[in-house]
Amino acid sequence: MREETERQFRELLEQHDREFLKSVTPSTERALREQEFDRRFHERAKEVIEPIMTKLRALMHDHGLQSEIVVTQRRTESDGKITPSSIAFEFRVLTDPETHGFPVTTPTLAFIADPANNIVLVYENSILPFFGGDVGMIDQCALDVLTDGLAEKHLLAVAQKVLRGTGAS
Q1: What is the mean pLDDT of residues 143-169?
Q2: What is the model's pLDDT at position 94?
Q3: 91: closest CA among 51, 130, 137, 124?
């Protein structure tokens, strides 16, 4: 598409958005802002975070370790419970106690969209049987501050905790 045509389309769509938003109630306006934040979050996750997670997954696979990348779209259940948009790296590794019947854990690092506060939360679950670990929010940042360096830093930190507990490191 030519730049001039694209510019005209954008102007037309922006005018449409302005006209549409005039008739929107505050709750609908908030829902539209949240929807836009989630859209931008998924774009950012696909461009910045997912390539790093994909590379780590391949590296782990080369060493006989399993992992999974889980992308979740925001949804609201019939009971009103909201599941936020997120992208998570799950370490599907077993510890020795787990192979002997102890509960299986799934250590995870997740980047979770929080459109109400206009931020991205970073959540860690590195708990392993007999090794301990951490569970909870470990960082937060604005969406445009979410960089590959930040994602790498957190993935490496959680991987060091998790793989140490599996005897893999």
Answers
A1: 84
A2: 65
A3: 124
Q: What is the Cα–Cα distance from 8 to 43, expressed in whole angstroms?
A: 24
Least confident residue range of 9-13, 42-46, 66-70, 85-89:
9-13
The one-letter code for the residue type at 24 is V
Q: Rounded CA gap, 129 and 143, in Å?
A: 34
Stretch (H or E) spanning 121: strand 119-125
Let me know how many helices (H) and strands (E) the chain has, helices first. 5, 7
Classify 130 in phi/psi space as left (phi over 0), alpha (psi -120 to 50) or beta. left
Q: Distance between CA 72 and CA 75 in Å, rounded?
A: 9
89, 109 in Cβ contact below 8 A? Answer: yes
Q: What CA–CA distance (Å, rounded) separates 143 from 163?
A: 29
Q: What are phi and psi of 45, to 5 degrees?
A: -60, -40
Q: Return the structure tokens found at 100.
A: 């002997």
Q: Is residue 104 helix, strand or coil?
A: coil
Whether 24 shows a pLDDT value over 70: the answer reads no
Contact (CB, 8 A) for 89 and 67: yes
Q: Where do we find the tokens 């301990």?
A: 132
